[in-house]
Amino acid sequence: MSDITMLTGATGYVGGRLLEELERSGVRLRCLTRRPEYLRGRVAESTEIVRGDVLDSGSLAAALQGVSTAYYLVHSMGDEGNFEEIELRAARIFGEEARTAGVSRIIYLGGLGSGSDLSAHLASRQEVGRALRESGVPTIELRASIIIGSGSLSFEMIRALVEKLPVMTTPSWVRVRAQPIAIEDVIGYLLEARTTPLEGTRVVEIGGADVVSYAEIMREYARQRGLRRMMIPVPVLTPALSSLWLGLVTPLYARVGRKLIEGVRNPTVVRDPAAASSFAVRPRGITEAIARALANEDREYASTRWSDAGIGGGGVGRRRRPYGRRMVDSRSLTLEATARAVFAPIRRLGGDAGWYYGDALWRLRGFLDRLAGGPGLRRGRRDPLDLRPGDALDFWRVEAYEPDRMLRLRAEMKLPGRAWLQFEVEPRERGSTLTQTAVFDPRGLAGLLYWYVLLPVHTLMFRGMLRSVARAASSPSA
Description:
Shape: globular
Radius of gyration: 25 Å
Number of domains: 2
Distance between the termini: 61 Å
CATH class of the largest domain: Alpha Beta
């Protein structure tokens, strides 16, 4: 049999992280997905992408040929209808086809929790694990508590609550104990599960180094973000009522988030310590897990092309939306000019050349910044034509610079949060596409008020700047 590893759920949060590590390890990899277009350009050339659906036995039968190990990382919580029934049916079909294809191992990531009153979400996760274990294929079911990492749904909901609510009325469920685990440690367990000795099936409980309450997780997040938060216990808020309240505070996660929050009444603590003797992973504590999530977020976000947030070429494109906790305003123009010509005015930004639009407003902003103790516009720039990472540029700092392609600036003005401004130029068959993206990471309620109160001004400034840069790029002198 060929030693192929199949990965389902590669477009998801955990699956995407695991995909990178499997490729880095040189594993012969096949990704099963309903939408291959979502993965093209994001995987290594050696990784095979096949179209298939875990609810379609025909597509599974073909995709599982030659597979020795299969990762089952799919769920249906975001789907409409009875997600428990859909998940169970999918697991049974997958298990049957895996057995028929001669798969030697299934690895599944489920959820911690025990008792007869499990939430629909946790009960479904464990029913899926049971169906896979009963398929006849040796199965390792990893059961995890809350996953801490930038982009994980549980962490994003906790963050949204802490960032938006200076005063929180906290129901009794925030005192329920959990054993949150860092995403890096989850990936470590998943990688080891592929090669660890296995006879029959196993359920392995995994968690971080600390057992804490949801309230303690929120307090630690607030501490690391420098936020002061007050929590007032309210005994009448049940998980069901809290899920409705969550939909008002964090509508971005409302549908899936409600299903998750209904499960917080169940403690998710490791009871069987067998993972410590069977795996080499030594999980981090909650403090380090949150610190790494916040630090990794900046690196991952910076390495992601902000213009990929749905901006189309041809004419003017614009996208304004939240990205995690950040606010993004991205605009693009396609010009009949070379990339070098389009980038020329960007290279001259700031200092004596100014900002191409609304210079009086920029000077006013610089004056206010100096009054607040910031650098204002007095620093100018080191060289009128040359830029390097680390250069001061008025009240910005050059964070990344690629000649004729990209300039990213990090704001050093006084702000209730953090801000970036990025310009990208992408060559086209006839001309180039110029994309300008402003990103704001608000700090608490003051940061959100700052963004929305100044939104009309920022819209005017950023739109005018983009068009002025485009005109300068299209001039004969460029």
